[in-house]
Amino acid sequence: MKIIKLIGISAVLLFFLIFIYFVVISGHDTRIEDGALTVSEMHITELILFIYAIIGSLIGWFYSIKTAVQNKHKWWAACVLIFWPLSAIYLTICVR
Question: How far apart are the first and last CA of the chain?
């Protein structure tokens, strides 16, 4: 397995683990009382893991587009290119 695949897979799994971590600490951590944990409120370890998860998710996004183009599925690549960021924007803005 290529290193880029390992980075992408591990970062996506880490993204889900960070989500679970934030759900767990939301009940008793004073930094999350307002319902959000900003970057300025994060500890350095949380920030490093969060940045790694974001970068890895972007690597997964670019890798899936590249693979679709290489396999001559240009419409699928266009859908991934458009809908992946839209879903991230939807999750960030609309789901609160």
Answer: 38
